[in-house]
């Protein structure tokens, strides 16, 4: 099982004493025989994710009535989801086809960087999107004045920048540790927990610091999102008519489902102790938020949203090759 471990001069200052040059992703290696099945299923899911999100981007780009802040944010979100799942899925699919899929030390850092950056952007974009819903529902008269294009662009830019800064400290702390014992990552991608398990130095201080950073980084957008929704719900409850309540709620329900799915699945893996103790459960739940939720999001938005459905119908009608589909 063990690779020939070669000691290479450390070219990068932040990586002291590392005798390991590559990791092995064990993935679902214990599920012998199921590998091909998993490959087919997850390839299909990946294709659906790409198609769904590209479709949302196309609809928003070609539909004038969807040129509003809410849909600009949704477009950015779909664009993000494509990269978020792409940081994990292609490599994961490869692990299903090979017995031992190796990933180089730097490859592991790059994958982890992009995954955390994308998850970070996702947290911030979800917060921006819920703030947008908060303004639309709680401050409808001032909405257009506050949410102008400049503000939208600024909030979107802040989300992307904050997201890309998020992993920097975590990476420096993690990959400064020594890895000299096993190089087998019991996971389908280079995630923090499984990588930290392989460190052979005392990682306690680093783990605590990483935990604090990760909690702050996710807590800030999470609390912003929560605060928006507490305000939204209290406003909706004060609307006297049932119809008015339903109408107001329908403008934010898709987003609320997406937020709940994202934080729900993330919370199960990173906050619940049982999932982190059992590698199998950890891997299964990780599949949810790395591969499955990016597929569900465009479906939720297109099925639950009248404007998106209408835009889809129009696009099919206008599309030359889609003429035969129109009634
Ligand atoms: C992202 O958001 C900005 C600002 O609202 C918008 O101009 C841009 O078109 C969006 N990008 C995508 C891909 O939807």
UniProtKB/TrEMBL annotation:
Question: Cytoplasm: present as a keyword of the record?
Answer: no
InterPro entries documented for this protein: GPCR_Rhodpsn, GPCR_Rhodpsn_7TM, Olfact_rcpt, Olfactory_GPCR1
Question: Topologically, how does it sit relative to the membrane?
Answer: Multi-pass membrane protein
A single cellular component GO annotation:
plasma membrane
What parts of the sequence cross the membrane? 37-63, 70-89, 109-131, 151-175, 210-232, 253-272, 284-303
Instruction: Name its cellular compartments.
Output: Cell membrane
Superkingdom of the source species: Eukaryota
Q: What is its main location?
A: membrane
Signal peptide range equals none
Per UniProt, residues of the G-protein coupled receptors family 1 profile domain are 52-301
**Entry's family note:** Belongs to the G-protein coupled receptor 1 family.
Report the PANTHER family cross-referenced here: G-PROTEIN COUPLED RECEPTOR, OLFACTORY RECEPTOR
Q: Which named protein is this? A: Olfactory receptor
The organism named in the record is: Sphenodon punctatus (Tuatara)
């Amino acid at each position: 099982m063990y690779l020939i471990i070669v000691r290479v001069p450390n070219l990068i200052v932040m990586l002291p004493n590392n005798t390991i040059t590559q990791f092995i992703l064990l993935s679902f290696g214990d599920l012998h025989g199921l590998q091909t099945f998993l490959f087919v299923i997850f390839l299909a899911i990946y294709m659906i994710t790409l198609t769904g999100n590209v479709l949302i981007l196309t609809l928003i780009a070609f539909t004038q009535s969807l040129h509003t802040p809410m849909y600009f944010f949704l477009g950015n979100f779909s664009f993000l989801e494509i990269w978020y799942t792409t940081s994990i899925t292609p490599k994961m699919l490869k692990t299903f086809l090979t017995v031992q899929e190796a990933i180089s030390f730097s490859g592991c850092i790059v994958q982890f960087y992009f995954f955390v950056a994308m998850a970070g952007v996702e947290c911030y974009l979800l917060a921006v999107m819920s703030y947008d819903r908060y303004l639309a529902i709680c401050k409808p008269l001032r909405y257009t004045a506050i949410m102008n294009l400049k503000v939208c662009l600024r909030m979107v830019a802040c989300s992307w920048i904050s997201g890309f800064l998020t992993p920097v400290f975590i990476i420096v702390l993690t990959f400064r540790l020594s890895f000299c014992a096993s190089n087998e990552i019991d996971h389908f991608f280079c995630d923090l927990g499984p990588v930290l398990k392989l460190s052979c130095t005392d990682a306690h201080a680093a783990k605590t610091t990483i935990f604090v950073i990760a909690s702050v980084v996710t807590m800030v957008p999470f609390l912003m999102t929560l605060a928006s929704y507490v305000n939204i719900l209290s406003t909706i409850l004060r609307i006297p008519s049932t119809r008015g309540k339903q109408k107001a709620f329908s403008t934010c329900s898709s987003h609320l489902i997406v937020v709940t799915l994202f934080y729900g699945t993330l919370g199960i893996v990173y906050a619940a102790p049982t999932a982190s103790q059992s590698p199998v459960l950890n891997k299964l739940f990780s599949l949810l938020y790395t591969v499955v939720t990016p597929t569900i999001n465009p479906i939720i938005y297109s099925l639950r949203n009248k404007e998106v459905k209408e835009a889809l119908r129009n696009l099919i009608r206008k599309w030359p090759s889609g003429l035969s589909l129109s009634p």
